[in-house]
Amino acid sequence: MPTRSSDLITLGLRIRHYRSERGFTLDQLGERVGLAGSQLSLIENGRREPKLSTLQALATALDVQVIDLLNTEAPNTRAALEIELARAQKNPLYGALGLPQVKVTKGMPLAAIESLLGLHRELARRASEAIATPEEARRANTELRERMRDQDNYMPDIEQLAEDRVRASGHVFGALTHREVSVMAEQLGFSLIYVNDLPGSTRSVTDLVNRRIYLPPASIPGGHGLRSMALQAMGHRLLGHERPNSYAEFLWQRLQINYFAAACLMPQDASVAFLSHAKRERELSVEDFRDAFGVTHEAAALRLTNLATSHLDMPLHFLRVTGDGALQKGYENDGLPLPADVTGSIEGQFVCKQWSARSAFTHTNRTTEFYQYTDTPVGTFWSATQTGAMDGGEFSISVGVPFAQARWFRGRETTQRAVSRCPDESCCRRPASDMSSRWAGKAWPSARLHAHVLSPLPSGTFPGVDDTEVYEFLEAHAAE
């Protein structure tokens, strides 16, 4: 049975097509299948989903097979245009204009439908050419997060590609070495060049003419090691990426190369073997996973989200939170209620003060993970949190699971427990009533404004990258 609105529209148009071919009116066909003509009209207009029994009755009355009605192809050219127009009018891009939707009637000229579609197509084209605003970035990021949640953050094709490339480099066990990464580049026909003058807007630059990958001479802040940066640059070539046509495509490519790099640094077979053994011993730990493969704590935590559900049958969540409680990155397929704005975006939203992602900052011993159970409105979760600091301030990395899964992890015996009522604002976002009565109207704080909130991403061939700097850099090094 169809479930999406676009499927219902196609279904309705196919029913109308066959009804018109048979010469039935709405009332005549409705009488044959036990429906009022008005009810059948709702089905034909894609506004009501018919029961299977109704579909079978319609197919019999129209002398077709049910599969003919469920075919996802438009029955004719006009119907295809009507479907495209219906989808365009449901697009948020059009909805943002505040204009009414045009109802396509049987008597509407084909030229009118084509004209309306032309306007919608031009609107979409101009929007895609605009620079990436923070709103566009947040929307694209939200869609990508939901897409990865649907597939449990797992990409088997890239897993296999990484396994093949790592094996071809001669790697056998342990952490992937810089030498092996260089061999991988050589096998692609590239050489790795370390320079001090990379453009400030880039992490690496690939010269496709001279087959060079330029990298900084040392790891940049934030744990992005040279191995990872080199692997990401190679990932673009191995995955056949072309210049992104939209900011959403740019984010998708970035996610793919990050995934490829992580799958090379922590190969699937070795990682699953390590994690499966730790689960059997009830000693799962991000710390141990990190140390076994020589990566950062964040990289190990993210890699765990790739493999835990698909190979350990375990839902989980991941959080990276700033010292003031703002969510920078988040993933969940275990039902943890991540804070989100009205658009569904989680970036920049503040997590509950009772969660370990924030309470861990108050503990003095930060060399090891902090463990905590948290009771939430949707159930109890266990989490392990590691804190750290960068030039931009403190941050925490958390990995957690539902209560029933905690038994597989080191730290499950913790007595640290908290209660979170968020998103109920009385939990931690609304001041106590007695405090409010004392201070309401008597305080005037000066808010700190984050510059990126108002700044659009620089335009260019690749979002955020200064084309002029990159081309000048390549010119300077091409003759070397």
UniProtKB/TrEMBL annotation:
Question: What SMART domains does UniProt report for this protein, alphabetically?
Answer: HTH_XRE
Residue ranges occupied by any HTH cro/C1-type domain in the UniProt entry: 15-69
Q: Which GO terms describe its cellular component?
A: cytosol
**What Gene Ontology molecular-function terms does this entry list?**
DNA binding; DNA-binding transcription factor activity
Record keyword GTP-binding present: no
InterPro entries from the UniProt entry: Cro/C1-type_HTH (IPR001387), Lambda_DNA-bd_dom_sf (IPR010982), TransReg_Diox_bact_type (IPR050807)
Q: What is the recorded name of this protein?
A: XRE family transcriptional regulator
Q: Which organism is it from?
A: Cryobacterium shii
Keywords, A to Z, come to:
DNA-binding
SUPFAM superfamilies cross-referenced by the UniProt entry: lambda repressor-like DNA-binding domains (SSF47413)
Per the record, a Pfam family? HTH_31
Determine if rRNA processing is one of this entry's keywords: no
